Amino acid sequence: QVQLVESGGGLVQAGGSLRLSCVASGRTFNRYAMGWFRQAPGKEREFVGGIRWSGGITQYGDSVKGRFTISRDNAKNTVYLQMNSLKPEDTAVYYCAARPWEIAAQVEGYDDWGQGTQVTVSS
Question: What is the pLDDT of residues 108-120, one digit of tens each?
Fold first, then answer.
């Protein structure tokens, strides 16, 4: 089990950028694939993207491809979500999640979740 804490959310204008961070506890962070999800009010939790345990492979949801980038620093037990060209429809609570080794695009594929951080994009 790993504990996750997200940070970096806030209010930004459309077209702007934010970088979210997710810090994991424990000494086995480099054995986990990390996913980012988001959930807007009244909507289901949506896969934003994920990064493999080694960092060599990433995967993104269609709505964020070309705008968002996921990276990780295993020495710091941290995964990042760089969000550029933000749109009002990106407004949501963003969650990071962990699962062993390989990326999954489904909520059910992840064992551990952070508490979430709010991102609000104004038009």
Answer: 999 999 999 999 9
